[in-house]
Amino acid sequence: VWKNCRRISKLEGGDRRILCAAVLLHDAVAVEKNSPQRHLASRMAAEQATLTLARLEWAPADIAAVAHAIEAHSFSAGIPPQTLEAKILQDADRLDAIGLI
Considering the entire predicted model, what is its pTM? Predict the structure, then answer.
């Protein structure tokens, strides 16, 4: 996912620090594919990322940017990406899911 993020952000821009944190933490919570809670996985990962980044004393605006990117990356969550970083993470994760290198 990081390789895809880097490639996309070279063309589109975006905050690499936000992207890096979002990539590292976007799958921080594992939920089985057949679980009825699957659609909540990205929201739970965003909550975990928020706690982690707060402990690292990140700025609240940066934490919110990472959390939004994580929440919006998942197709099953149905959350439209509102920031460039969220759009990049969503695209990069989907490219990874279909096996594009």
Answer: 0.90
